[in-house]
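User: Hey, quick favor. My workstation is busy. Could you predict this chain's structure for me?
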Amino acid sequence: MANMHGGNLFLEEGGFTYLFYENEALHEFHESKQMPDSIQMHSLKVRFKNGQIPTSVEKYEEGQGVYNYFIGKDKSKWASSCKSYSKVILKNVYPHIDFEFYENGGNLKYNFIVNEGGKAKDIKLEYLGADELKLKNGSLEVTTSVREIIELPPVVYQESKDNVIGSAYKLNGNVLSFDIDKGLKRRNKFVIDPVLVFSTYSDSR
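Assistant: No problem, here it is.
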C-alpha cells in the first residue's frame, strides 16, 4: 500500500487499486476531533487485462519502521510488522514485461519495462469503477466522484531517456493500450513511462 494526498494505492498481483476519499472532511475531523456523518470515498481498480501472475516480486530501498494492518474481524487477513519499500517491480505481469512502481520526489510513478521478447501490444489496462474515461489532447482523463486522474501522453524510451520513441494511448471502452511508432528496435529493452497528475473536486465544481 502507498499513501498519497487524499487516498491510498494498493499494489496487487493483477493490477492496482486507488482508494480516494474526501480530503476536506478528514481535515475537518483532525481539526475538530468530531467524526463527520459521512466521508465520500471512491474505489478505482486498474487491472492488467489478460495478464498473468507475476513470476516474482523485487523490492528496493527499504524504509524505516514497520506497519500493522488489523482490518476486519478475520484474523487470517491481518498483517503485522510489514516493511515498506520505495520501489517494487512485479516481474512478468505479461510475458517478458515487468511492472515497476516507485516513489519519485513524493509522487507515485509506474513504468512498464518491455524486455526482449515482450510485446507492448499485450499491455491492456482495464479501468473498473471510473465515472468517465476519455482521451483529450493525447492524455487520458479518468473521472471519479472524488477526484480526477490525468495520465499525460506516455513517454517511451529505449537504451537511454534521450532516445524517445513516438507513442500514444488507445482507448477502447474502458481498456487502455499503447500505440508505439515503428522506430523501435524490437530486440532491445524499452520503457513505457506514463505521467500521473491528480486533481481534486471542490463542492462548487
